[in-house]
């Protein structure tokens, strides 16, 4: 295997054993099976191929850190239980736990809050309007996505995934089903 070349974001202690976020990382193709590389090649856009590989690369690194495999080619994300991945170029995130888990990452950008009705209930919109955290809509979006992923996609739409805000801190929102955190220029959400 080639030397691992990566940059990972500094996550809270409570997240580190279960989650990893890579930024601007070079993917080591030797870490992938021929089938995985063939799947990546099915994406027409280079950006999509890179995101696909980078998010699975993060999962393989995390699996090795957790002692789930000795060789990264042994850990195939599509076959692994309790794994969640996300990407928002140039970042990729992975989470692994002993039970279902969800992670989402979004690069901070301007979103019109008028779109909140598309994925938030009326009560969730009310909660969002009461918080003062910057990029609050992205925090709510990430929390919803992570909670949806933890449910394994069993709920049809994000709007139908219930989410109750419990408290706000300077850089995060704590919900009953997820916690968000702003790190550098991204918002990350992880389920408990």
Which descriptors would you attach to this protein?
192 residues; alpha+beta; Ribosomal Protein L22, Chain A; 2 domains; 3-stranded antiparallel beta sheet; 20% strand
Task: Provide structural commentary.
With 192 residues, the protein is of the alpha+beta class. The protein has two domains: 13-81, no CATH class; 104-190, Ribosomal Protein L22, Chain A (Alpha-Beta Complex). The chain has helices at residues 13-16, 34-41, 46-65, 122-130, 136-150, and strands at residues 19-23, 83-88, 91-96, 103-107, 165-168, 173-175, 179-183, 186-190. Strand 7 and strand 8 form a beta hairpin. It is globular, with a radius of gyration of 17 Å. Residues 1-5 have low confidence and may be disordered.
Give the topology.
Layout: H1 13-16, E1 19-23, H2 34-41, H3 46-65, E2 83-88, E3 91-96, E4 103-107, H4 122-130, H5 136-150, E5 165-168, E6 173-175, E7 179-183, E8 186-190
Antiparallel strand pairs: 1-3, 2-3, 4-8, 5-6, 7-8
Our count of helices gives 5
Order of helices and strands: HEHHEEEHHEEEE
Cα radius of gyration in angstroms: 17 Å
Tell me about the largest β-sheet.
3 strands, antiparallel
What is the name of the CATH class of the largest domain? Alpha Beta
Supply the number of structural domains. 2
What is the strand content? Answer: 15-25%
Helicity, as a percent range: 25-40%
Tell the overall outline.
globular
Provide the spatial order of strands within the biggest beta sheet.
1-3-2
Low-pLDDT stretches are 1-5
User: Could you tell me how far the N terminus lies from the C terminus, measured between alpha carbons in angstroms?
Assistant: 33 Å
Please tell me the overall pLDDT.
Answer: 93
Classify the secondary structure makeup into a structural class. alpha+beta
CATH topology of the largest domain: Ribosomal Protein L22, Chain A
Number of strands: 8
Q: What's the architecture of the largest domain in CATH terms?
A: Alpha-Beta Complex
